């Protein structure tokens, strides 16, 4: 019997996905190459005050070792993970776009 799962809506799904899709999970899903193809060339992040003065700069940790900073060697655009996961699952998952689910009823 095939596993059937209903995933509906966004809500906390974005942050939950971000939490569970760490680099190790990306490696286990075999999506490392897909992620690396979408990398953003970002040197780091600067916080600037209202006058345009740089207050602090955090450089990207591109070494692959140690703690990650605000940006890293795996920096990609927000929509890219959705596209990557869709491409990786579209042949085995039935997607319904533009539909909603009204009520959910618990059955024990």
UniProtKB/TrEMBL annotation:
GO molecular function annotation: monooxygenase activity
Annotated SUPFAM superfamilies: FAD/NAD(P)-binding domain
Keyword Oxidoreductase: yes
Keywords: Monooxygenase, Oxidoreductase
Designated name of the protein: Monooxygenase FAD-binding
Species per Swiss-Prot/TrEMBL record: Penicillium hordei
